[in-house]
Amino acid sequence: MPVRLQTAQEHEVDLDAINRHTLEPVTADDIFTFSGVCSNDRLDSYFTRMDPVTTLRNYAADLNNGVSLLGNHNIYTAPFGRSYGGQLIQDDTDNANAVRGDWYILKGVKINGESTDDTIRAIKAGITRDMSVGFSDESYRCGSCGRDLWDWECPHIPGLEDENSRMSFAWIENARLREVSTVYKGATPGAYIDKARAYVQQGQLEENKIARLEQRFQTRFERKDGAAFFMPKREDNKNMNLIEQIRTALQKNEIEKSRVYEILQGEGEKFRQPDDMAIRNELGDQATVEGVKQLKVEAEQGRQYAADLVDQAVAERVRAQGDGFNAEAYKTMLVRAADLDYIKSEIESYKEMAGQRFTPGRHTNPDDPSRGHGGDPEDDIIVSESYKGDEK
Fold first, then answer.
1. Nearest one of 351, 352, 385, 391 to 366, comparing CA atoms
2. Considering Cα of 19, then 24, then 26, then 31, what sign does the dihedral take?
3. Three-class SS of residue 17?
4. Which segments carry the region annotation Disordered (predicted)?
5. Fewer C-beta neighbours within 10 Å, C or N terminus of the chain?
6. pLDDT by residue (tens digit) across 198-217?
């Protein structure tokens, strides 16, 4: 329920009541106090109501005796405040019976890694404004027939209409207050969900009613035929990760494959199982860890072989044409082509061109007009093609 704050500046702080809970007395400057409604007998979102005669009276007495103030019902953390007063009141909003509590928080300390001064500021600013009760020792009485909710003579389930088309609910009786928490949204009990689950498993509820319960209580009920999505309890699968849980559930036919696909597709990116199957079909026998490792080795070897061919083609062209062309651009073109046969043909072409350019022996042009005008005297010698040497 929303907390309607009354800070210490707006009402007198009962230091005597507070110091009953402290080992050393505190002053008004040491603490921040506030009060607010933490429970009432209105119908809540779980279709339960706190019984004003037993439960709410117990809550008021427990608040007077001192109850821990926690965050989000996390009983494994240290309380950051404590109650020092409580009373049963008549809420002016709709004449509901309600319990108002008084709490104090010690200033200037860190609890659970958070500064209490920050918590106090959040309460003053209206950011922290909801409270919820944690209780125990309760019993549930049906609001439609008055029987114990667990009595099999009671056919009603809170949240569904009874035989008179009235919405069923349950009275929570004789509960004792265990703690009070500041929460994002007021929490309410849902223990009677076990009764609904039992009815579902025995096939005593229509599908449309089951769906309504699932939507309201944000929980999944397993049908009699096992068609519902099954999530194993954490304590039963301490050594199993999520994938193993799903695999085991599939093997035991406790979950439908289509439900797995539906959930995965609803998480954002489309489930890619068809692509995975296509990859496995393409790899065939190599669709194993060792097979993929071998493919990676061979791929690296192939990349090195292609790089060596590109370097060889560039070298052959330089040999045939000189280094006057853009060797880097030529290399980039060959890499982008990624065609080994083409690169090999380039190598052979420039090898042949270089061979034609650099044939063995000395070449002289007898018709050269500059011949005989200086330079090497041997340039004036014309050797007949039929000349076999001095001894021939």
1. 385
2. negative
3. helix
4. 353-392
5. C
6. 667 767 677 777 776 666 65
Q: What is the 3-state secondary structure (H, E, C) of 297-357?
A: HHHHHHHHHHHHHHHHHHHHHHHHHCCCCCHHHHHHHHHHHCCHHHHHHHHHHHHHHHHHH
Q: How many CA atoms lie within 13 A of 370 on its CB side?
A: 4
Two tokens, residue 361: 């022996």
| 86 DSSP β-pair partners | 101
What token pair was written down for 243? 């994938």
For residues 86 and 59, is the Cβ–Cβ distance under 8 A?
yes
Contact criterion met (CB below 8 Å) for 133 and 101: no
Percent of the chain whose pLDDT exceeds 70: 70
What are the tens digits of pLDDT across the range 37-92? 888 888 887 788 999 999 999 999 999 999 999 887 788 888 999 999 999 988 76
For residue 242, how many C-alpha atoms fall within 13 Å in the half-sphere facing its CB? 2
- According to DSSP, the residues that pair with 103 across neighbouring strands are 34, 83
CA angle 180-184-188, nearest 5°? 55
β-pairing, 97-106 with 81-90? antiparallel
Q: 31 pairs with which residues across the strands?
A: 106
Q: Which pLDDT tens digit goes with each residue over 94-118? A: 678 889 889 999 999 999 888 999 9
**What three-state secondary structure class fits 138?**
coil
Residue 110 pairs in a beta bridge with 115
CA triplet 149, 150, 151: central angle to 5 degrees?
95
Tell me the three state secondary structure of residue 236: helix
Is pLDDT of 392 > 50?
A: no
Query: Model confidence at 390, in pLDDT bands (50, 70, 90)?
Result: low
Q: How far apart are CA 178 and CA 73, in angstroms?
A: 10
